[in-house]
User: Fold this.
Amino acid sequence: MAQDIQARIQNPIIRVRDVTVQFGATRVLDGLDLDVRRGEILGFVGPSGAGKSVLTRTIIGLVPKVGGRIEVFGVDLDAADAAERRGVERRWGVLFQQGALFSSLTVRQNIQFPMREYLDLSQRLMDEITMAKLAMVGLKPEVTERYPSELSGGMIKRVALARALALDPELVFLDEPTSGLDPIGAGDFDELVRTLQRTLGLTVFMVTHDLDSLYTACDRIAVLGNGKIIAAGSIADMQASQHPWLRQYFHGKRARAVMS
Assistant:
């Protein structure tokens, strides 16, 4: 067991080194280093506007960096050719903030979108996979022909998660997955993510501001501040930190409500 833990620490599934991202004169990420270990749920937190979602988008290639190195599954994404890059992308899934479903596509078509992009499957097989993914996230078959405008906020998040799982990924990026959900819905979603992580062996990189998610779903937490990782560790490590922002975040009024 100890050897397995040590191997995961030494061979992270995501390795970010000295990454810098700049928009105009504003440096959002400034020489950031971060490891995400295989099989863990890492909660990524920090002040609003600090660049949490920017890091996710930089890793998956939607935001360019001006410096640094990113490796996923041991592949340097800058050095990878098109085929290698596509192979890596095939192994991750992404749930964007607010779900980001295609409004003109049905639930079925949204979930099948990555299948059409990366696989060559018959319509019948894609339909079978779609039903399996819907069941996996706790949705009934009758939602398949609905459009996003006909779904509740919680259902949108679950459909988006089903789409993220469509290719049976090893790694899932979740960007503010519980934002906009009521406390019960958010708690149910956290439990779903935790269950999927355990049953499927997923590695999860979760950008969040939700304290409940940190306490109930995450194995480890990394904190972004001033463009760098200012702390990384367990909830206990975060509570013990003397950093001013961490003390306010984990010991403020809302934190006490969570702890009670």
